[in-house]
Amino acid sequence: MLTNKNIIIMGVRNKWSIAWGTAKACLEQNAGIILTYLGEREKESIEKLVQGEYEQRVRLYPCDVSSDEQIQELFDKVEKDFGIVHGLVHAVAHARTEDLRDSFINTSRDGFLHAMNISAYSLIAVSRYAKDLMKDGGSIVTLTYQGSNRVVQGYNVMGVAKAALESSVRYLADDLGMQNIRVNAVSAGPVKTLSAMGIQNFGSILDIVQQRAPLRRNVTQKDIGDTVACLLSDYTAGITGQIIYVDSGFSILGA
Ligand code: 1JT
Predict the structure, then answer these.
(1) Residue whose CA lies nearest to ligand 1 atom number 2
(2) Closest ligand 1 atom, residue 188 Cα
(3) Could you list the active site residues?
(4) In the β-sheet with 243-246, what is the strand arrangement from edge to edge?
(5) Architecture of domain 6-245 in CATH?
(6) Average confidence (pLDDT) over 109-133
(7) What are 176-232's pLDDT values in tens digits?
(8) I need a labelling partner for 129 at 20 to 30 A (CA). Which of 2, 6, 81, 180 fits?
């Protein structure tokens, strides 16, 4: 499905990362991938992830999306090493712990701007660089969560940032459509990742999904990775500007 495509995947932290699930799905479909990670501290553990059968088709580059210089450097290197890019996966988000613990009304200006900067603005910034390398058209996919439209206690400022991210998907899709670049988001049900570990009551959210979602189970890293890989492929050539739910059907439920 992705043979001869070069795909940049941003946001791998460890083997539980949704970004890593996406990378595995893309590698299974024969893509060449470029993984970006936050900083030198992460480098070694990510090198270990990649070792083995897929090693030759994976490159690793650091990129902190809060830095325009680092984004520029990343895309300069990718241009030199690959010349062309077909896909970009944005699986990056951050909020300050206190903003996910306290009541939403106590969100600080700094915490609000930080969550928006890392979780929403970064998609616009990386898309602007990626479009110049998508010389043959392309597909950009980001990750979101339904806390953008519904109140999920504790998701707080991340919900607001995801609402901005989802709206950005639509505006970017319109800007880039004439270059045959598609932009979509996958709205994932809760998955146990390192980011989710610090969340109070995350376990009870998983239990509720398992009991009530139409599929009566939680989604897996593979469920999400496979859908992202599909959106990166030409099998979804007519889909752009959409938020695709991969949530065992949980979001269709009323009370
Ligand atoms: C961040 C964190 C973004 C956790 C995130 C996230 N997007 C989804 N999650 C998991 C999650 C899921 C539910 C939830 C809270 C978190 C951690 C900090 C960095 C940004 O409900 C309260 C359902």
Answers:
(1) 195
(2) 8
(3) 145, 155
(4) 58-62, 32-37, 6-10, 87-90, 138-144, 181-188, 243-246
(5) 3-Layer(aba) Sandwich (3.40)
(6) 98
(7) 999 999 999 999 999 999 989 888 889 999 999 999 999 999 999 999 999 999 999
(8) 2
Q: From its phi and psi, is residue 36 left (phi > 0), alpha (psi between -120 and 50) or beta?
A: beta
Pairwise CA distance, residues 239 & 236, whole Å? 6
Q: What's the token pair of residue 203?
A: 């376990």
> Which amino acid is present at 201?
N
Residue whose Cα lies nearest atom 19 of ligand 1: it is: 94
Instruction: Extract the tokens encoding 204.
Output: 């009870």
Nearest CA to ligand 1 atom 13: 190
41 pLDDT tier (thresholds 50, 70, 90): confident
> pTM for this structure?
0.98
d(CA 71, CA 85): 15
Which residues 6+ apart lie within 8 Å of 215 measured at CB? 248, 249
Taking the domains of the chain in order of start, what are their residue ranges?
Answer: 6-245
Nearest-5° angle of CA 159, CA 201, CA 21?
A: 65
